[in-house]
Every structure is written in C-alpha cells, then in structure tokens.
Amino acid sequence: MEKNPLSFQLKLNPDDFLPATEEEKEGLVVMRDSVSFWKDGFRRLRKNKVAMVCLFIIIIVMIFAFIVPAFYPYSYEQQIQGANNLAPMQYSAKEMEQIAAGEKVFPHFFGTDKMGRDYAIRVMMGSRISLLVGIIAAAIILVIGSVFGSIAAFAGGWVDLIMMRIVDIIYTIPDVLLIVLLSFALKAPLKVLAQAPGFGWISVVGENLISIFIVFALLYWVGMARMVRSQILMLKESEYVTAARALGASSARIIKKHLLTNCIGTLIVTTTLQIPSSIFTESFLSFLGLGVAVPMPSLGSLASDAINGLNTYPYLLFIPAAVISLIILSFNLLGDGLRDAFDPKLKN
Amino acid sequence: MGKYILKRIALAFVTIWAVATITFFLMNLVPGGPFLSEKAISPAATKALEAKYGLDKPMAERYFTYISDAAHGDFGDSLKQRGRTVMDIIATKFPVSAKLGGMAVILALCVGVPLGVLAAYKRGTFIDSLFSVIATCGIAVPGFVICTLLLYVFGVKLQWLPTLGLKNAQSYIMPVVALAAYPTSYIMRLMRSSMLDVLGQDYMRTAKAKGLSQKVSLFKHALRNAILPVITYVGPMLAYTLTGSFVTEKIFTIPGLGGEFIKAINGRDYTMIMGTTIFLATIMIVMNVIVDIVYKLVDPRIKLK
C-alpha cells in the first residue's frame, strides 16, 4: 500500500509489538549489585597508595616477626661461642674455619650482640613482642571501651553520669606515671600468682608483659569509651532501634546487633590507631627497664641495651630503633587511611 | 562560668586523691621492703627502722596518716637517702626538669605554630608535603630514638655538643630538641588543620573583600582563631615533657626529677615514689584545669556547661 504524503497516519511495524524476549528484559533492569559497607570501604582504601604501602610493610614485618623465627637457624637466647660483637655479615674465627672446611654457615645479617647472640633473630623476636603488645592491648581496649561506652550511652540518666565521671577521672590521671608505677608494682604479685596451680601460663607469657596488658586495660580504654558513647548517643535515636524494641529485643541485643555494628567504622579506626600508641608506650617502658624480662627482647630493651656501646656498635641501636619507628609509622598511616575509607565523618 | 570552674576544680581534687590512693596501695602490693637490699642488717635493726618510718603500723592507719600529711605538703623522709625529706629532694631536682621541660614547650610552640601556618598557607605545594612528612615521622619516632640519634650524630660522631650533664648552654641543646620533637610535630599538624579550617570560613572572605592585606588577614584574623586548638594541647604537652624527661634524663645523665623517680622505683624508696608521683600528677592535673578554663575564657563560642 502506498503511503499518502499528506496522511498523518503512522506506519507501524508489527514486529515492534511482539512480546519481549528474556534477553531484552535483562537489558532493561538498571539495578546494579549493591555495594556493601565493606566493599565500599576497601575500594576507597585500595585507592590510597600510602595506606596500601603501609599495609604491605606491616604484613612483611609480621611475617618476619611471627613466621620466620620458626625456620631461623639461630635462637634468640642462644649464645654462639666466640661470636661476640660481630658486625653485620661478619663471621667469627670459628665460623670462618667452618666455611673454609666447606661447611655452610648461616650469616649474621645484623651481626651479634656482646653475649654472642644473633641480632637479627633478636630484632625479630623484639618485633614480635612489640606487635603482640600493640595488638592484644588494642583488643582489650576495644572490648572494655566499647562495652563501657555503649552501656553508658544506652542507659543514659544517672548511670551515664556516674560512668562518665569515672571516665573523666581516669582520663585526667597522668597515664605514664601510673603505668610506670603499676608495671613495677604488679610484677611481684603476678610472680606469686604464677606459682599457684592453674596459673603457670603467667610465667610462660612473662609477668611484665601481663602487667603491661593490665595497665593498658585499666587506663587506656577511656578514649575508646568516650568515642563509642558519643556515636551511640546519636544512633540510639534511630528508627530501627525503636523498631527493634517494638519487636521485643532486649537492650543487650540492641547494643550488640544494632548499635555497635553501626559504629564499626569508628571502632576499626580507633583500634588501629591504638596499636601504635600501645607499642610506643611499651617501648618507652622497656627502655626504662620496666618492660619485658630478660632474655626475652623487646625493641625498646634492645635499644636501651645498645646505648652503652653506642660509640663502637651503633648498628645495635639503629636497627631496633628503625624497626620500631617503621612499625609505628606504618600503623599510624594505615589508621589514617582506614579513617578516610571507613569513617569519612571523623576526618579532622 | 563559676559553676564550671568549681566543677573542674572539684574533679581535679578527686583525681589527685585517686592518684594518691592508688599510689599508696600499689606501693603496699610490692613485697620486699626498702631495707631488704641493705647489707648485713639484723632483724632488730630492721624492726627499729620500720618503727622509725611507721612501717609497722596497720595499713589503714598508715593510709590516713599519709593522706593527711600529703595534704599538708609533707611526703615524709626518703627511705634511701637518709636525712633528706622527699620534699627537699623534689625541691632540688624539680627545677632542673622544669627548666628543661619549659624550654622544650617554648621551642615546640615557637617552631610548631609558624610551620603549621606556613604549611596551611602553602597547602598542596612541596613545602606542605615536606612538612607533613616531617610531622608524621616526628610523631611516629619514639623519644628515646630521637635522643639516641642526636647523641650519636652530634655528641659521638661530630663531637659538637657535650653528651652528659647540664654544664653550659650548649649542653641544653640536645635534650631540649629531643624533648620538643614530638610536641612540635603534633602542634604542626594541629595548627595546619585548624588553619585550613579557618581559611575556609566566611569571615576570611569578608576580610579579603574589605581589601585587607594578606599579612593582616592571616595574622590578625586567621591565626587568632586557628591557635585555639593548640591551647588545649598545652596541658597534654606539659604532661608529655614531664614524663618524657624520664628517658631524656636517663640518656643524657641529667640530674632531674625523672631520673630520681626511676632511681626511687629501682631502689623501692616508697616515700620517694609516692611523693614524686603525687607531685608530678598534681602539677599535670592543675595545669590541665588551668588550660581548660583559659580555653573556655578565650573562646566565646564554647558554651559553658
């Protein structure tokens, strides 16, 4: 049929009115995969080059601190005969003979200390102690701080008032003074306790290390508690809390399932930033001779021991000093990166 | 205002009392009395010494005597340095530490504030990134590392500066710089972020629109507002320099209160430990209260609770 040039009638194609095929239907769906909180955060974190480099450094340090010592030919307390005060990569006379005889001798990458102990393994063990202190202390602080803060915020009223006054008092107590005092005073009672049946593990971990944990647990949770409280005060007005309550959820369940999970960003960031500050304090204590007990090394005590020989063996000081600075720096920068990624509101 | 000040002071008193109480009971947890390490001492002599210092009385009685004496500024006699009262030792040693700490605080403020302002003013440039790297490192490196590095480079290798004691002006340089490193970095960061905050405010644009010179708007308007957060940091900074001096004094063998405190701990000199702790804690707490009150006074935007 010919089309009249003056006609307004549309010329329709009957094919356009066929039912859509499955493929065509798929193409019309504009929904994307939902981006979860974690995915979103990690995507932002991956873009942050500084934070990724720091994460990489932390992983490397952790491998050296926790895995490598198991395969290392020397032990941290083993004193090698005649190998005192070796410079990095130097061999003792005896070891030279062994090499001449065709034996293989594992090199002392960082030399040895004045008692003939391989310094590389001591630095690794020292990093292990420092990292353990940082991570465990941060975990303790996370638990105590978030429980205390959320209860105070959720209960409100005079409970909140009293709990926050306690926080205020602990907050104004000069922490380092009390830490020095506590770690000194707790040592002996813990030693007595270690003799009691069932508490033998105390001497395995070391009294000093446990007293450091107790100190952190007693004093350092207040910052976390304040942070969590302020978040929860805001969150508890949300509708989903009312909804959960209407459905009959208990307060404990609301705190656990709804409130704490919603301030997880703050929790992650504060905990990560707590790790370097705990490591910092531990190294300070060890440096003053109040940290971990000999022969167990910590980065602080290694540096402290090396001061007397600073003139002749400066590398004994520089290696642990560099490692501890690197660890603290990496955790700090990673914490900043995590804050930008997971908790953008917190920035400045 | 008056209510706020009263509340702060009351809280400070409670805190000082808490510190004194904790210190007292902690000291009593430690076994091995102060006279154990003395050579060849008969049980009778120990008894006599304990009676002299009141260590034979029940704990509750000792506690109340101690608290009431401490409230009068009497911390008793040192158990190790015979014939000297704790207050006497503190009076001779504290000025050394205070001088060092005070110089470090002034240095930190004089260096940290201008550099922070400069970094904010030149944000995004090379100078800004350079300063931010320096500040980040300054915060991450522990005090003893900075001390020993300075000691090694300037004392041992170059031999420019004396390594021990405080004999002349040059010998102050290293300890003060080492002590000031952390607070300087912190103030730099604080100053930069607060300056950036202020520079973005409307009144800065108004100042510019009025035709004020860069210098006037920066120093008269921006700096005044941006420096407020630094004031809040003065309290913690004093606490840091007072306790940081433990390490500095140990490394540079300076006869200050920090070294005395560590010595007292190792020698189990109960009265000295308690006295020093309460004394230092009181200074820190009082300084914090003063700083808080000053902060509220100078910043009218803060509502007084």
Topology:
The complex is a heterodimer of chains A (348) and B (305).
Chain A: H1 22-28, H2 37-47, H3 49-71, H4 93-100, H5 119-155, H6 157-172, H7 175-195, H8 201-205, H9 207-219, H10 221-235, H11 239-246, H12 251-262, H13 264-287, H14 299-306, H15 315-342
Chain B: H1 2-29, H2 43-52, H3 59-71, H4 86-121, H5 126-140, H6 143-157, H7 170-199, H8 202-209, H9 214-226, H10 228-251, H11 257-266, H12 270-298
Give a verbal description of the structure.
The complex is a heterodimer of chains A (about 350) and B (about 300). Chain A is mostly helical and about 350 residues long. Chain A folds into 2 domains: about 40-80 and about 115-340, MetI-like (MetI-like fold, Orthogonal Bundle), CATH 1.10.3720; about 85-115, no CATH class. Helices cover about 70% and strands about 0% of the residues of chain A. Chain A contains 15 helices and no strands. Chain A has helices spanning about 20-30, 35-45, 50-70, 95-100, 120-155, 155-170, 175-195, 200-205, 205-220, 220-235, 240-245, 250-260, 265-285, 300-305, 315-340. In chain A, helix 5 (about 120-155) crosses helix 14, helix 6 (about 155-170) packs antiparallel against helix 10 and helix 14 runs antiparallel to helix 15. The radius of gyration of chain A is 30 Å and the shape is flat. The mean pLDDT of chain A is about 80. Chain B has about 300 residues and is mainly α. Helices cover about 75% and strands about 0% of the residues of chain B. Chain B has 12 helices and no strands. Chain B has helices spanning about 1-30, 45-50, 60-70, 85-120, 125-140, 145-155, 170-200, 200-210, 215-225, 230-250, 255-265, 270-300. In chain B, helix 1 packs across helix 3 (about 60-70) and helix 7 (about 170-200) packs antiparallel against helix 10 (about 230-250). The chains are: A mainly alpha (about 350), B mainly alpha (about 300). At the A-B interface, helix 6, helix 7, helix 13, helix 14 and helix 15 of A face helix 1, helix 5, helix 6, helix 10 and helix 11 of B. Chain A: InterPro entries: BP-dependent_transpt_permease (IPR050366), MetI-like (IPR000515), MetI-like_sf (IPR035906), OppC_N (IPR025966). Chain A: It is a multi-pass membrane protein. Chain A: Keywords: Cell membrane, Membrane, Peptide transport, Protein transport, Transmembrane, Transmembrane helix, Transport. Chain A: It is found in: Cell membrane. Chain A: Its main location: membrane.
